[in-house]
Amino acid sequence: MQFISVKEAMKQGSGSVSVRGWVYRVRGSNKMIFIVLRDSSDIIQCVINREKVSAEKWATAEKLLIESSIEINGNIKEDKRAPTGYEIDVDEFNVVHFAEVFPITKDQSTEFLLDVRHLWIRSRKMTAIMKIRSTVFEAIDNFYRQRGFYEVAPPILTPNACEGKLTLFEVKYFDDIAYLTQSWQLYAEALIFSLEKIYCNSPCFRAENSKTSRHLAEFYMSEMEVAWAHLDDILKYAEELIAFIVQQVLEKNKEELKLLERDTEKLRKVKSPLPRITYTEALALLKKQGINIEWGKDLRTIEEDKLMENFDTPVMVTRYPKKIMAFYKPADPHDPNVALNFDMLAPDGYGEIIGGSERDTDIKEMEKALKEQGDDPKNYDWYLDSRRFGSVPHAGFGMGVERIVSWICGLDNIKDAIPFPRTMLRKAP
């Protein structure tokens, strides 16, 4: 048999086809057995007629359970009654493996589905999400490559923190200790002095004591860093990147978005340029909505969600208070109380999806900020070397890939945006 995918068979539409995959559903009678076969491309109904096969083959077909693997040859035809509009009249088949009774049935709890994630990953929902996730990564690569960026892989083991000591994962490193990376940023800042425009897609780790639907302990960050860049430059990159990703998913994943019942009209509104407001303007909007935030306080999830009721596309909030920012985010020379940074917030309760800033070039200011955060500047001496030898203005941002996937797919929980989620309470399977 020369096998083709289910989607290719349906595209052929008629004639003899050979397909293979797994039993998605099965039902039968004394005369017919109806198998809905799935592969990575789609599902299709296959009909085994008792009169067309031997008694031995019929007995074999009667033993088939969900997730049994099977090879099928037969004639495909259009049938509006079939789940995907086509049906294969089976001439011959070969059972590759008889599955045991599948443990996943209807109405299973979320926690159970996470316990058996290695099996639930086969579901049509998870398959659709993973295809969209793949498109997102492809779009990121294409976006940066088309703009002359170089891809660079960062170290996973690092000697110090990038996003605060409280969320570090400590690991034994021979006779010493190291930490799982929170971000590639400090290394990216060293690399822009040779490559100038760089990006990466890499796992990051944050030991956050959080059980929300938005947080993962291990996640993928898509990060970029650019030499000679200022805040306005990376704002433009960020809005163009998001618009490009969404356009690619709309173009390549129509069927997956339909299966997920995603309202694509909302996604079609995502175009560059995106709305931009300052932190101070955000507080003014919230005040009109009945929420009073003291200037200088960070925006919590509840406040971000309330703010986004004013927008139906992502919005970029710039110039947060300097005192609540990481040590490497510089003050605005026109207003030292705010930093040259931004967060991009997604609508419909999906929160922050991108965060970025210009990078401070003042060694004394960074050393002061590190001390205020309880860190020893000597631990960052290698990083500060980039300011000692040919320092230039530069900026960058990080995008949470799972947050992007979660928003685009309209997921209830970010755990479904990654194949095997790791959280405060879950490290298996």
Written overview of the protein:
- The chain is of the alpha+beta class.
- The chain has 2 domains: 92 residues, Nucleic acid-binding proteins (OB fold (Dihydrolipoamide Acetyltransferase, E2P)); 304 residues, BirA Bifunctional Protein, domain 2, CATH 3.30.930.
- The protein contains 14 helices and 18 strands.
- Strands 6-10-11-18-17-16-13-12 form an 8-stranded mixed β-sheet. A 5-stranded mixed beta barrel has the order 1-2-3-5-4. Strands 7-9-8 form a 3-stranded antiparallel β-sheet, with no helix packed on it.
- Helix 5 packs across helix 7 and helix 5 crosses helix 14.
CATH topology of the largest domain: BirA Bifunctional Protein, domain 2
Helix content estimate = 25-40%
Task: Output the number of helix runs.
Answer: 14
Mean pLDDT: 95
Total of domains: 2
Strand order of the largest sheet: 6-10-11-18-17-16-13-12
Terminal CA distance reads 36 Å
CATH superfamily of the largest domain: Bira Bifunctional Protein, Domain 2
- CATH class term of the largest domain: Alpha Beta
Structural class: alpha+beta
**CA-based shape:** elongated
The total beta strand count reads: 18
Question: What is the alpha-carbon Rg in Å?
Answer: 26 Å
